[in-house]
What we know:
- The structure is a single chain.
- 40% of the residues lie in helices and 5% in strands.
- The chain contains 13 helices and four strands.
- A hairpin with a 2-residue loop joins β3 (111-115) and β4 (118-122).
- The protein is elongated, with a radius of gyration of 19 Å.
Amino acid sequence: MTSSSNPRKRTKRTMVKHAGSDSDNNKPDYLDRWFVGNQESIEEYYKLYSMKIIITPKALSLEWLKEEKLDEVRDMLKFQKLDRFLKLTENTYPYLVKVFLTNMCYDEENLYSQVKGIDITINEEVWLSVIGLRNEGATISRGNTSELGNFNKVQFYKSCLRNQESASRTFNVGGLAAIPRILAYIVIWVLTPRGFNHATLTEEDLILMYCLMNKIKINWINVIRKHLFKVGKKLEYRIPYVILLSQFIEYFQIDVETEVVEEIKALNQITTTNLTKI
Length: 278
């Protein structure tokens, strides 16, 4: 197997307007091209990833927040050093992303995969180069909130409501005040995107919102890595982070000359109109 750790380099792209289904790539050699003959990976791809839907990515410009006089939200996101990640709008390689996920594994430090015979190690140097994140900050998750002091999800949710006297057991997004509502949208659609139930906050959503609002530095590499594995192995969950994973493919200079490319439209930017729909 060939490995590569070359610096990030722009690659020549073959633009395809519609990706279609996996059958569109029905060439005798396409599976061998992607998996270099690894039958176990090919079976895993067919069983799971070939049928998984990719979440349409959203992007957020911190300049838009400035224009909308949402400086408080902008400062929260800049504190977390999320500006480069949030504004990713590059084109994507949907099938190669599925190959990446089929072969993906991870340990406490790195992500690993293989695409078209190229071994990929996503270490801190790669994260820093692609989206400016370091492997540092609080490692928090559901059931692991010791670094958050007296965090209580019910009390925190009530503090975020427009009407804090109202009673709700469903953690609905609709009743949130302006700033928590924007943060909820960013968490649900960009930071830990999911393909369903965007109107209700999970405990994980509330934890991330709490850290954003209180400027508790989060280890976002850990958050992204765990979210990928949480949604990756179940058919009903859709694939997140398609732009980020495509950027990893470009970083390692995987040959994309004959691969399907999907263009990410500017319409996927988060705007005031989007926020009124949740």
